[in-house]
Design goal:
The complex is a heterodimer of chains A (about 600) and B (about 325).
Chain A: H1 3-8, H2 11-17, H3 21-49, H4 60-94, H5 103-122, H6 148-176, H7 189-221, H8 235-267, H9 275-288, H10 304-332, H11 341-364, H12 366-372, H13 376-406, H14 412-438, H15 455-481, E1 516-517, H16 523-530, E2 536-537, E3 544-546, H17 552-568, H18 575-594, E4 600-602, H19 604-610
Antiparallel strand pairs in A: 1-2, 3-4
Chain B: H1 2-19, H2 32-65, H3 83-112, E1 121-128, E2 131-136, E3 141-144, E4 146-150, E5 155-161, E6 166-170, E7 174-179, E8 185-189, E9 195-201, E10 213-219, H4 221-231, H5 243-255, E11 281-282, E12 286-287, H6 290-298, H7 300-303, H8 317-329
Parallel strand pairs in B: 1-5, 4-10
Antiparallel strand pairs in B: 1-2, 2-3, 5-8, 6-7, 6-9, 9-10, 11-12
The chains are: A mainly alpha (about 600), B alpha+beta (about 325).
Protein name (chain A): Cytochrome c oxidase subunit 1
InterPro entries (chain A): Cyt_c_oxase-like_su1_dom, Cyt_c_oxase-like_su1_sf, Cyt_C_Oxase_1, Cyt_c_Oxase_su1_BS, Cyt_c_oxidase_su1_bac
Family (chain A): Belongs to the heme-copper respiratory oxidase family.
Chain lengths: ~600, ~325
Amino acid sequence: MSNAKAQSKSVLWDWLTTVDHKKIGIMYLVAGAFFFALGGLEAILMRIQLMFPEFSFVPAQTFNELLTMHGTTMIFLAAMPLLFGFMNYIVPLQIGARDVAFPFLNALGFWLFLFGGILLNVSWFVGGAPDAGWTAYVPLSSESPGTGVDYYVLGLQVSGAGTLIGGINFLVTIINMRAPGMSMMRMPLFTWSTFVASMLILFAFPALTIGLLLLMLERIFGATYFAVDFGGNVIIWQHLFWIFGHPEVYILILPAFGIFSEILSAFSKKRLFGYSAMVFATLIIGFLGFMVWAHHMFTVGMGPVANSIFAVATMAIAVPTGIKIFNWLLTLWGGRIQFTTANLFALAFIPSFTMGGVTGVMLATSAANYQFHDTYFVVAHFHYVIIGGVVLGLFAGAYYWWPRIFGYKLDETLGKWFFWLFLIGFHLTFFVQHFLGLIGMPRRVASYLGGQGLDTMNFISTIGAFLMGIAFIIFVVSIFTSMKNKVTDADPWGNGRTLEWTMPIPTPEYNFAQTPLVRDVDALWYEKYEGDGKMKAAEPLGDIHMPNGSILPFIMSLGLFISSFGFIYYHEGFLWLAILGLVINFGAMFVRSIKEDHGYHIPKEEVIKGGK
Amino acid sequence: MKYLWRLLPFTFILLIVGCGQQNLSALDPQGPVADMQFSLIRLSLYIMIFVIVVVFALYLIVLFKFRERPGDTHIPKQVHGNKALEVIWTTIPIILLLILAIPNVMATFELAEIDDSEGAITIRAHAHLFWWEFEYPDHDIIAGQEMYIPTNTRINIELESSDVIHAFWVPALAGKQDNVPGITNTMWLEAPNEGVYLGKCAELCGPAHWQMDFKVIAVDPDTFETWAANMAEVPYEEGEITEYAVEGRAIFEANCLSCHAIGNEGGNFGPNLTNFGERTVYAGYMEATDENLENFIRDPQEWKPGNNMPAFSDMPQEDMDALIEYLKSLKVLD
C-alpha cells in the first residue's frame, strides 16, 4: 500500500488499521482523556455524596460502584494509557527510530486496552458496575452478586494483555532501535523511565493476570482458591494483587518523573543535574518496587517479622526518590527558569510530590500504619503522589509536547487559569483528608455520621473537587480555542534539547528522513552549541521501508471482547459466544501468521519533497 | 522569640487535635497502644516536617533567584553533577530513616506480643455483615455491638470474620487489625480511663460498610464483673417486668429469638440483645428512638443495605409496640 493509496481510503479506516506509533499514540491520548473525564465525573459524584453527613445523593451500593470504577478507570484506563500515548509518540522520536520494534503489536496493544476499557464500562448499563474496590479483595469480590465483578475481571484481563504487549514492545524498541551514538547512558530521561516502567510491566502484570484468572475461575466456574470453607485462602489474592499493584504505581510515576526531567531541564535551559544518579535512582526505585508490596497489608496479620522487613524496605525507597528531588532542584539552580504552563505543572510537582512522599514514609512506619491504614490518610497520600506526581506530569507533558503531536500550541493564558485552579483545587481537596483519616474517618465509606468532627473538612474537600472539575473544563475548552496557534518550526519552544524537536511539524510518517547521529546526552542541544545546530545524519538519503497497516489487531481485540461476554453470561448459556469470540481471535492470528506482508517503501524523491 | 519557634511543632499538633472528637481521634490517644502509635506518628511527622522545610526552602530560593528576567538571554552553564552533593543527599535521608525505623521495629514487635499473664482478658471480636459480636470465653458470654472492658486491664483481642474481610478499629485506643475469614488475628489494647470509645469497620465490606460502627465501653473492674455475670442470664423473668413487656417477650420469642439471643438463650445469626435497653445507638449508628427501631425492624434493607435480617413489615402495630417495650426493658447494669 503506497502513500497515495492510503490517502484514497477513508479517514476512519486509516485510523482503524494504522500501525504508525504516532497515530497509535494519539489514539491512546484521546481514549485516555475520555476515561480520565469519566473517572473524574465519578470522583465528583462521590465528593457530592460526601459533602454533607448522612447525605443521600447516591445510594450506598452505587457509591461502592463509583469508588471501584473511579480507581480502576483512573489507574488502568486513564493514567496508564495517557502515559502510553506520550511514550508511543515521543520515545521513538527521542531515540531516533522510525517506529517501534513491533508496529503491529503496538496497534494490538491499543485495541486490547480500548476494548477492555469499554467492556469494563458496559457493566454500568447491565445490572451494575463492580463494587468491591479497585483492589477487588476476596471474598467481597468473589461473592459479590450480579455480574459487576465479572466485567472487572474480564475487562482488566483484556486491557491488561494490551498493556503487557505494549510494555514488551517498548523494551525491545529501546534496546534495539536507538540511533547510532545513542548509547543507553545518552538516552533522555523520559526514554529511560519508559524503559524501566516497561520492565516493571513485564514482571508485574503476569501476577495480575494470574490473580484475575483465579478470580474468574472462582466466580464463573466454581473454583475454590479463595473459598475458606473449602480450604481456600483469602490472603493469596492480596499478595497476588499487590505484587502487581505496588510496581503498578511505579509504572505510573516513573514515566511522569521522566517527563518532569525533560521539562525542568528544557525550561531552565540546563542539562539535567546528575544524569547518571537520576538513571540509577530510577532503576533502584524500579527494583525496590518489587520488594515492598506487603506494606499494603500490614494489618492482615503477617506478623511482626514480615511487617518490620517490609516497613524498612519501603522506607528505603525514600532514598532514591530524595536523590531525584534534589537533582531536580539542582537542575533548576543556576538556570534561567521560564514559567510556561508546561513548566508550571512541572514546578508544582516538586512540592506536591514531596508532600505525598513524606506521608509515604509515615505510612511505611508499620506500627503507626495500624492507625493510618484504610483511612482517609491513605486516600490523601496516594492522591498526593498520583495527582501531585502522575497527573501533573501528564498535564506538563501535554503542554510541552502538544505542538509536536497536534501541530499547535495550547493557549498560555487559559493554561495558567487551568493550572492555578487545578493546583488549588487539588490541595484543597486532599490536604484536609490527611486529618480526616487521623481523626477517625475510614476510607471507602458511603457516608459518615454528623457530630463526629468530620463535617467541615469533608465540605472543604468537595469544594476542592469542584475546582479541579472546573479547571479541567477550562483545559478542554482551551484545546478547541487554541487551534489557531499553528506551529511549523521543528523546535517551537526554542529550547528543545532532544531528538523529538528535530523533525518538521507535523511529524513526517517516517519521523527521520535520515537517521540522526547522536553525539551527546541532549543530542540537539549539543549540535546547537557545539555543532551547526542541525543533527548529523548517520545514513545517506534513501527509500524508507514502512510497515503496512492492518485491521487484524482490531479484529483480534474484538474477538476477545465478544468472547468476554460469552464468559460473563456463561451460566445463561452463552458458552457459544465465548467460543465464537475465541474463533474470531485465533482466526485473525492465523491470517496474520500465514499472510506474507513485507511492508512498502517510501521512495527517496518523496522523502526529499516531504523534508521541504 | 527563640522559644516560640521551639513551640511551633506542638502548637501544630494541638491544632490538629482540636479538630477531632476525643473518643474517636487517633491524635488524642486514650490508652497505651494508641499512645505508642501516636508517638511514632509524631516522630515521623517531625522528621518529615524537617524534610519538607529543607526542600521547600531550596525550592523557593531557586524559584526567586533563577527565574527568567525580561531581556535575559544568557545560556546557563551546563553543569553535569556533583559527587559530594549526591553523597550528602543520599546519606542524610538514610540517617533520618534509621531514626524512624528502629523505634518502629521495636513498636511493631511490642504490639504483636500477646501477654496472657494473670488478669488479662481475652475477647473474641467476630465480625459479620454488618455488625460485631464480642465473645468472652472466660465468662462464657456473648455481647453484640458494644464491647465492655474493665479499665486498666490488658485486653487481648482475637479477630475473626464469618463472611468477608472487616477491620477492627478503635482510633482512640488502638490501631486496626483485619478480621479475615479463616484466620484468627490478634491484637491488644488497654483503657486506663472509663469511657465510651467509638469503633469503626475499616475494610470495605459492602454497602453498609460505613454503618458498621461499634463501641468499646470501659468501666471499672467491679462494674465489669457485674455486667458479665448478668449478661449470662435472661435479665427478666415473668413478674419482674411490665405485663406489656411480657407480651413483647412472647412476640420476641416467636419472631426474633431464633437469630437474636438473650442471655445464653437463642440463636447467634444476629447481635445478642441481652443489654439492648442500654444501647445509645441502634443498628450501630441510628439515634436510639422508638421510631428508628420500628423503622429498622420493618425494613432493615432501607437502613442498612445488604444486611441479613429479614423484614417484619407486616407486624401489627400493637405487637410492634410491645416488642419495642420489651427490647427497651433489656438492661443488665441497673
